[in-house]
Amino acid sequence: MKSFHKLELLFLLLVFSANVFSQENAPHIKGKVKISIKEGTFDCDLTLSNIPRVEDYVIRLNSGMNLLHIRSKKPNDFVLGYDRSDKDSTSTGESLAYYFPGNSGKGKFLPQELQFRYVGKFPIANDTLQNYSKADWKGNIAFNGMSVRSDGTQSAWYPILYDAKKDVAYNKVVYDIELTCSDCSTLYLNGNKPISATSANLKSAEPQEMALFCGNFNVTEDGNIAILNPTFSQKEIQEFSNLVATYKKYYEQKTAIKFNQTPVFVNTTPTSIKNAWLFVSYPTIMGIGYGKNGLGGLFEKESQKFYKPMIAHELGHYYFGTFKVFNSELGDMISEGFTEYMALKLTEDLQDISTYNKMLTEKFNSLKEFKPTPVAAVKSINDISDRQTYVYDYAPILFTAIEKEIGKKKMWQWMKTLLEKKTAFTNYEFLLSALKDTLKDDKKLELIKNQYLTSENAAENAIKKINEK
Question: What value does the CA radius of gyration of the chain take, rounded to a whole number of Å?
Answer without folding.
Answer: 22
